[in-house]
Design goal:
Layout: H1 24-27, E1 35-37, E2 44-46, E3 73-76, E4 84-87, H2 115-194, H3 198-205, E5 213-214, H4 215-221, E6 222-225, E7 229-231, H5 234-240, E8 246-247, H6 249-254, H7 256-262, E9 273-276, E10 279-282, H8 285-314, E11 331-335, E12 338-343, E13 347-352, E14 357-366, E15 376-380, E16 392-398, E17 404-412, E18 415-421, H9 428-433
Parallel strand pairs: 16-18
Antiparallel strand pairs: 1-2, 3-4, 5-8, 6-7, 6-9, 9-10, 11-12, 12-13, 13-14, 14-15, 15-16, 17-18
The structure holds calcium ion (3 copies).
One calcium ion (CA) binds near residues 49, 62 and 63.
Length: about 450
Amino acid sequence: MDAFQIIFMSCHKHVSVCDVFFSVTDKRFYRERKSFLCIDGSKIIPFEQVNDDYCDCEDGSDEPGTSACPRGRFYCTNLGFRPHYIPSSRVNDGICDCCDASDEYNSHAHCQNTCWNLGQRERAYVEGQMRTLDEGLRVKQQLIEEGVLLWREKQAQLRELQQVAEDLQIKLEEHRRKKHEADRLKEQTLRALENSTVNSIFQLLDSNKDGSITVDELQAKVALIHDEERVLSEDEAVALLGGGHQIDLTKFQHTLWDTLTKGDGVKMQQLRIVKLSDLLFCLAANWEATNLKKVEEAYDTVNMEISDLRKKLAIDYGPDWEFLFLNGQCYKLKVYEYTYTLCPFNQVTQKNTAGTEVSLGKWGMWVGTQKNQYSQMVYENGEPCWQGGSRSATVTLTCGTETALRSVKEPSKCQYIMDFQTPVACQPVLKQRGIHSEL
Ligand SMILES: [Ca+2]
Ligand SMILES: [Ca+2]
Ligand SMILES: [Ca+2]
């Protein structure tokens, strides 16, 4: 209780109430002696002139209990709350300044001692803060553990994707080779067909010369070359004959001939290379092209995913990856007619009631203090501001038991500041500082 020790002084002349309090550091100056040395050392006065409501010392130190000195200070002990100094001019000015009412000892103001209530409220507030911090630190520990797992998971995912990409690369080379071969065969086929007529090919297929091609005749002369050469199935043969079991010359022209010469009929998608007697028809070029395109697209997609994931993993998520869980999340807050969305490590947007969305910035970097760089993040290069420059948002991370966007302000045009609460911002060091030492 040293801090609250008080001393009493006997008062003189005009000051009727005698108890004037000083802080411990100052009390040594006011020991009752014959004379008083102004604290700044400028003057020695008789002790009767201390608190005689007349300013003698230049530093006001002879009148700590009156308002006589313009530069004097009065010490409010405020037992139960925080002690503090007020200018001496506020002593007995009819306005309650000290919560213990000590500044109005000789006035008509009816001041109540409210220190205990104030202290109570402050202690409750601080206790609440401490509980928040404790809970925040507990959740943070959990998030750290999850962060480590998440980090490992992402690393595994990356390795997996890289394996897929490698496999696709092999597949891609294979398909390129196939496509190249198919193109070559197609050229060869088209050249061969140029020298043939509808009639000559029809005659070739119509083995018994009865004026129609049957499934059997087709199967005898046309082979399917897939990975290896094989006979056409009945269904495949029927499909080539336009859905029937036999065709005459006219129908042949519009079905099989058409397919052979164009080589891209829908029905032929299943067929890759058709060997017709000694003629090698390639109908596969388009099919191979489609195939190749599919593999190329898959390869590009996987590579894009790898690049995204690499970018994601290159971000600094704190020493324990405790901020990793924020990546992929978005937090919203409605402020008047705007809805703000913070997607950590990605972007910040603002949407009005009409649904128009404006970018306030994309993830930039950590810009916290030297002591704790993870206390603030900045999002830059948002949509251009009509006054020039681009929008940006600075996000301050504060300790809380839940993760949520708490406030958004725009102190200067197109520069936004956000308060983002999350357990991972809780620092054990705050706890040591703890409750105000005065309480
Ligand atoms: Ca005096
Ligand atoms: Ca006052
Ligand atoms: Ca026939």
